[in-house]
Amino acid sequence: LSIFFERLAHRAQKISSQLCVGLDPLLDRLPADLPIEINSILKFNQAIIDATKDFACAYKPNSAFFEQYGQVGWQILKETIAYIPEDIPVILDVKRGDIGHTAQAYARAACDELGTDAVTLSPYMGLDSLKPFLDYQDKGAFVLCLTSNQSASELQGLQIANDKKPHHLYETVAQKAASTWNYNNNCGLVVGATHTEMLSNIRKIAPGSWLLVPGIGAQGGDLAAVLKAAKSPDGQSRFLINASRSILYASGGPDFAQAAAKDAKRIKDALAK
Amino acid sequence: LSIFFERLAHRAQKISSQLCVGLDPLLDRLPADLPIEINSILKFNQAIIDATKDFACAYKPNSAFFEQYGQVGWQILKETIAYIPEDIPVILDVKRGDIGHTAQAYARAACDELGTDAVTLSPYMGLDSLKPFLDYQDKGAFVLCLTSNQSASELQGLQIANDKKPHHLYETVAQKAASTWNYNNNCGLVVGATHTEMLSNIRKIAPGSWLLVPGIGAQGGDLAAVLKAAKSPDGQSRFLINASRSILYASGGPDFAQAAAKDAKRIKDALAK
């Protein structure tokens, strides 16, 4: 395993948590007692991190929610990443995918400039668009495989005609991420929680890969089925379940940090069962 | 046609140019007479824009090359876009693609915060990841279809099994971009110049779509074949040929702006033949 996935496994085991806390701040959803100004976002993020750090296996700031606030947003993203305690891995959700020399610049932005430990990537352009990230041996990457949005099936669900049996595009991605793209043992997958059966298919194709699983709603209906499908055949829990808004906006009042802590603990405990 | 593609067609006709000038600045390739510091990048971009504006149908700043310089880079990107003359359309090369509410934040970042006229997008997550951009009726989008990098064929070249004849993933993307994704008539395609035959296939599937074509090297070997393949069946030139490094780095000396102008004019003239 890469240094990143070793750190992740260590952290998950140490605090018995598979919870990834997503940081997707929105100015118009800040709690009532913070002034509605961009700098409040950093204070909000810091309060959320302080409140949830005992339950978070990892944090996942989403670049889009910072970019929308321009250069100040970018600075807050950097300070948010720097604020996360050293022993908690950070996955920067950027979903980049571009030609080699451009991907190299994106990798510098995420890994060097912002100092993240891992990123999410988009696979449409193939290996040489992922390589500049995967070449960082101490960093990790999660490649989009099966996403939880409604239109996901438009491309991801297409049947591929090959000489063996037809399979789907998302399964081809899983197969590549578990083999040729995994040359540094640092390539995981993003797999939405909305289709448990497809999650099982991916786990069969990529038994040892780390999965980043968004799409568990506040209610968490099918949680037991998702956990069963996400487990590796050897019984290891090589997955993170991401929750963002249910934690960040558990309360819109002055008790937002306590409410976030309570919700993070609730999800962590539900995952540990 | 959307407002964006009308503007683009108008501009192309007015100055007889299909040239898109890519702005991919690198600190370590700045001309010798500019101090090696981040603020020189803005001066460099402004000099390049001044030198090439009579030959550029559009400009395409690439977000990655600014993001690598952090918040200062983001500010320079914004000022670069603002510096481009009002009548020249700006395509921000970001290749974003994410779930709806995140795509919405990316759209705000590109369209509202940075003020671009169009963007490039990645199609792996399907329509609802593109929609927040396409919903801007006055803006345009170019969706990745066939890219010019070596690994492009890994996914884009896969054969899709359907009930008619097998076709490739990139052709499915072209077909969607020319129909369901084009509900506001503002959805174009990114098509690399490296495979002329596939470019012809795409033009058959999407006869009226605007194509953004990168991958013409400094030498421009197959230019005639590319232009023939990119033309619409009605004879209209609904395409932009992008050139970045050959123009930006035509000279590394104090004559860099004159050299850029000369190279931009050379490519514009070659495209007009």
What would your notes on this structure say?
The structure is a homodimer of 273-residue chains. Chain A is of the alpha/beta class and 273 residues long. Chain A has twelve helices and ten strands. In chain A, strand 3, helix 5 (100-113) and strand 4 (118-121) form a beta-alpha-beta unit. Chain A is globular, with a radius of gyration of 18 Å. Chain A starts with a helix and ends with a helix.
List its salient traits.
10 strands, 8-stranded parallel β-sheet, 273 residues, homodimer, alpha/beta, two-stranded antiparallel sheet
Q: Of all protein chain pairs, which has the greatest interface, and how many residues does each chain bring to it? A: A-B, 59 and 59 residues
Helix-residue proportion of chain A: 40-55%
Number of DSSP E strands of chain A:
10
What structural category do the secondary elements of chain A indicate? alpha/beta
Write down the overall mean pLDDT of chain A. 95
Strand percentage of chain A lies at: 15-25%
Low-confidence stretches of chain A: none
Kindly report the oligomeric state of this protein: homodimer
Q: Please state the CA-atom Rg of chain A, rounded to the nearest Å.
A: 18 Å
Distance between the termini of chain A: 26 Å
H/E topology pattern of chain A: HEHEHHEHEHEHEEHEHEHEHH
Tell me the number of helical segments of chain A per DSSP (H or I, 4 or more residues long): 12
The largest beta-sheet of chain A arranges its strands as 2-1-10-9-8-5-4-3
Q: Main beta sheet of chain A, described? A: 8 strands, parallel
Cα shape of chain A: globular
